[in-house]
Amino acid sequence: MKILQPPVKDTDSLVIKNSKFIPLLFVVPTKEEVSAVLAELRKKYAGAVHFCYAYRLGNLGEEYRANDDGEPSGSAGLPILNQLLSFEVTQVLAVVIRYYGGVKLGVSGLIKAYKSSIHSALRIQDYDELIIKRKAKITFPQEESFKLYEWEKSMAYRIKEIYPTYGIIEFNDETSLKEKISQKIQETQGFNFTPLD
Q: How far is CA 77 from the centre of its chain?
């Protein structure tokens, strides 16, 4: 998964048969921020007819929504969402603002306009890979706590908290790394590995 690297670059608007399509992208980690951005856009672009959008939230883009804002069903929000899926980006709100030019474009024309508009915005952006962190609880005999420190560097985890008989570690969400850490700890007498998320 990728996230937009701020600052988000401006994109030229697209004009088709006198209708103006303005693509905008925003880094948003929560639904509340999505609502706040949309409210601000409706004030800033008060003369616009449609504010079609899609967003993806969560580390894996598992929370998403598309909105056609009065355009025919599936002609605006879904093409925008499909571009977010195609670019594998999350924690993002993509909005295309339309100023109606007096000529109907038809459903296929709208799909093409919304898709092209947001595609042009997404393709010029810079992205960072989203690194997901996982935590695990390691229990151990009190006299063996030093081993947690010994393994820290070679096992590529970071100790977050340490107590007399357990510690909390954090590591990148890579299956092979999780398995390596878990296996090493399970092989050591008296140690146990419990994922926390």
A: 17
